C-alpha cells in the first residue's frame, strides 16, 4: 500500500493555513491538500472542490480526510461526497499536531493511521499550567 493522502477541509482558511504551518515546520508534505470553504461555496460548491481534489490524487492508497467540525458544512459535504468510498477515512476535528504526525509517521495501514491520528489529536490537548503545576509539586 502506498502512503495515504491527506485532505484538510474547513470553513474559511483554517485548512490551508494549518497545512502551511505544518509545512513551515517539516517541509513540503507530499500528498497533502487543503480545501477551504468560502462564503459563496455552499455545500454543492464545497462538494465539487472536494471531488476535484479526490479526482486529482494519483496514488491508489488510502485518503485521510480531516474536517474542522462535525456537523458543519465541510463535514456534511465531505460525508455526502465520500460516503461509500472505501479508500477514505473521515475524521472530524484536526489540529497542527495531527497534521505533523501524518507527515512524519511510517504507518501505512489506513485504519491504524486513522486510530493513531485520533489519539494524537486527543492527547495533544493539555492544560499547560495544570501540567506545569503537577511537575512543580512533585
Task: Describe what this molecule looks like in 3D.
51% of the residues lie in helices and 17% in strands. The protein is an alpha/beta fold and 138 residues long. Strands 2-1-3-4 form a four-stranded parallel beta sheet, with helices on both faces. Helix 4 (96-104) runs antiparallel to helix 5. The longest helix is centred in the middle third of the chain and has 15 residues, at 42-56. The radius of gyration is 16 Å and the shape is globular.
Describe the structure concisely.
The chain is of the alpha/beta class.
Number of strands: 4
Q: Provide the spatial order of strands within the biggest beta sheet.
A: 2-1-3-4
Helix and strand pattern: EHEHEHEHHH
Mean pLDDT: 95
Helix content: 40-55%
The helix-and-strand class reads alpha/beta
The Cα radius of gyration reads 16 Å
Largest sheet: 4 strands, parallel
Q: Give the N-to-C terminal Cα separation.
A: 46 Å
Q: Which word captures the global form?
A: globular
Low-confidence stretches: none
Number of H/I helices: 6
The assembly state of the depicted protein chains is: single chain
The fraction of residues assigned to DSSP E strands is 15-25%
Amino acid at each position: 500500500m502506498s502512503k495515504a493522502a491527506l485532505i484538510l477541509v474547513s470553513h474559511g482558511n483554517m485548512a490551508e493555513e494549518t497545512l502551511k504551518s505544518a509545512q513551515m515546520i517539516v517541509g513540503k508534505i507530499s500528498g497533502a491538500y487543503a480545501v477551504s470553504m468560502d462564503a459563496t461555496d455552499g455545500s454543492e460548491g464545497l462538494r465539487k472542490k472536494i471531488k476535484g481534489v479526490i479526482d486529482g490524487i494519483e496514488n491508489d492508497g488510502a485518503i485521510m480526510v480531516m474536517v474542522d467540525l462535525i456537523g458543519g458544512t465541510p463535514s456534511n459535504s465531505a460525508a455526502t461526497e465520500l460516503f461509500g468510498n472505501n479508500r477514505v477515512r473521515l475524521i472530524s476535528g484536526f489540529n497542527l499536531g495531527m497534521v505533523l504526525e501524518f507527515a512524519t509517521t511510517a504507518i501505512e495501514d489506513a485504519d491504524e493511521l486513522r486510530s493513531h491520528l485520533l489519539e494524537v489529536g486527543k492527547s495533544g490537548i493539555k492544560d499547560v499550567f495544570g501540567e506545569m503545576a503537577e511537575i512543580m509539586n512533585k
